[in-house]
């Protein structure tokens, strides 16, 4: 009941009259309900006082209280119907008056509180009605308890048709599970939940709303009601949907581009990036997830050739948000990156920075290659012309301008036929265009006329330029001026013909001389062979007779002279044998034998022949090395060759050692390359004498010939025998320390006979 409203409707007189009426009713009820003698003197006056104070106000209430106190004390306090002193009655009167006072205070406070609540409710209702948000209160089962005007306007329905009905039919059916799930999370500890869902508005179709739902619980935690404050976010949702589409399109665009893109906000946090950015910088997942630009910067520095310069530029741009930048970044691995940065703006306000990176390594390499090619073409000594297919000149290099004397503006756009001299055969041009029209390269000589009228012979190489689709768009003509070469070539031809004539004449003379020399050599060989046979016959007789004379009784002088005759005869016989062998070798009349033999038959046999010739201070050693024991070849010629070396070693070594060695140098397809060596510790040979040792009749020192004897044929024979057996010879020596003579021979593995 609105007390202030009642008070405002009644005048003061009416309220006093009402208070008197209430007193009268209370007095009448006291007489009717209880006898006068009843001890409950004030029983009906207590309610009268409360009602008077509540309904009529303070003044009428005091009037009712006073009248009730007088009437009750006079009529119902003994002695009845008179004012007499009665302690019990006075106490009851005091209690009544005190109670009336308390009631007046309580009623006054209650009236004030109710008035305040009423004002608050009015302000609250006014606020709800004035809200543009639509407000609804409903029970736990969905029954609507209250809606404001905005709610009614939204759904085009009066308040009466909404209150008492359920809210569920209003919401979009497909969103109900989400709404129930969200409302189910409300609790005293979590009394507020925000839900975005769709609903149906008459005449407006499906709309989006955002509802802040606040739950009210009693002390037991039971849900009493829920107040939902909503706003229409359809435009926002549509914008979000459109934004999502735009972002999706942007994301697809970013990920389809070859550029690496990064967008950073003013807080140095990544706002957007594409996969190419991650792959370019190889950024790990944890940094990507953190979206921390500083962490990413620290990570990528190790990849850069100039990390300090890179970081300095980044901080410079962050410190000047309005600035834009374009530069190149060099990686340690050789990659070149093109970097572009510009501020990100929304409504002309800088909100971040966009970084764009493009890997131009391949392009840079191509540009460098193109620059090299262009430099090479421009600096080439040969004249170079590039034409289109008309053909019209589009490019000439400096060499062309220098050689022809033309300026660039004089030849650009011209047909190269202006260079024709009329001296080039027409067949040449026919062959040229036949090759080019078939997409082939043409090479040939052209006689061209330069600006000064001079004629030059040029060797031209004309090639078609094909594009990726195999179409020919240009021709490249590289021309070398060979006029001087042609002149020199003609002179050389003349000299060559002259030289050929001279050479033919000289060759004929040499062939004639060689024929005569061969005849003389054969005559010499025949002479030596015949003479050796003629001399050996009497020489053998002399040796034989000397041997017989030594058996007879001779004086000491006779024995000495016979010994001299025998030694001289043996020496002369050795010389004759060497001359005979040399003549056979020169005449190619020695044929090698091919028999199996044991290696020791060669080395030990040679040792046995020279061991008796040396002094007692000389040791002779044999080393078979890793050569197989059984070999197949000419044992006699091997012995002869090795013995020639061994005899020289004994001759020139008085003390020390002599080594006879065999070494296996190579083995291929059953062929053995064996090296035989004779090393001594003798007098040695001067280095400048080594090259002539193997020449016939040559010796290192002629004085040694007189001291040690010899003809100088032994080494020559050994060399010829080694060559005959597919080998070579050689010598090494240190004067005063000894010598090493060797020869090689190609042999085969032999079959052993144990």
Instruction: Point out poorly predicted stretches.
Output: none
Helix content: 40-55%
The tally of domains stands at 6
Alpha-carbon Rg, integer: 68 Å
First and last CA, distance:
150 Å
SSE arrangement:
Blueprint: H1 3-9, H2 12-33, H3 45-56, H4 58-76, H5 87-130, E1 134-138, E2 144-147, H6 149-155, H7 159-162, H8 176-183, E3 192-201, E4 205-217, E5 223-232, H9 234-256, E6 260-265, E7 270-273, H10 275-281, H11 285-290, H12 293-300, H13 307-319, E8 325-330, E9 336-346, E10 349-359, H14 361-379, E11 383-388, E12 393-396, H15 398-404, H16 408-411, H17 426-437, E13 442-449, E14 455-466, E15 472-481, H18 483-551, H19 556-586, E16 595-598, H20 599-611, E17 618-623, E18 630-633, H21 635-651, E19 656-668, E20 671-680, H22 702-708, H23 714-724, E21 729-734, E22 738-749
Parallel strand pairs: 17-19
Antiparallel strand pairs: 1-2, 1-5, 3-4, 4-5, 6-7, 6-10, 8-9, 9-10, 11-12, 11-15, 13-14, 14-15, 16-18, 18-22, 19-20, 20-22, 21-22
Keywords:
Beta-Lactamase; 5-stranded antiparallel β-sheet; 22 strands
Structure description:
49% of the residues lie in helices and 23% in strands. The protein is α+β, with helices and mostly antiparallel strands and 754 residues long. It has 6 domains: 3-126, no CATH class; 132-238, 2-Layer Sandwich (Beta-Lactamase); 257-363, PAS domain (Beta-Lactamase, 2-Layer Sandwich), CATH 3.30.450.20; 380-481, 2-Layer Sandwich (Beta-Lactamase); 482-590, Signal transduction histidine kinase, dimerisation/phosphotransfer (DHp) domain (Helix Hairpins), CATH 1.10.287; 591-749, 2-Layer Sandwich (Heat Shock Protein 90). Strands 16, 17, 18, 19, 20, 21 and 22 form a 7-stranded mixed β-sheet that branches. A 5-stranded antiparallel β-sheet has the order 2-1-5-4-3, with helices on both faces. A hairpin with a 4-residue loop joins β11 and β12. The longest helix has 69 residues, at 483-551. The protein is elongated and about 220 Å long. It starts with a helix and ends in a 5-residue tail after the last strand.
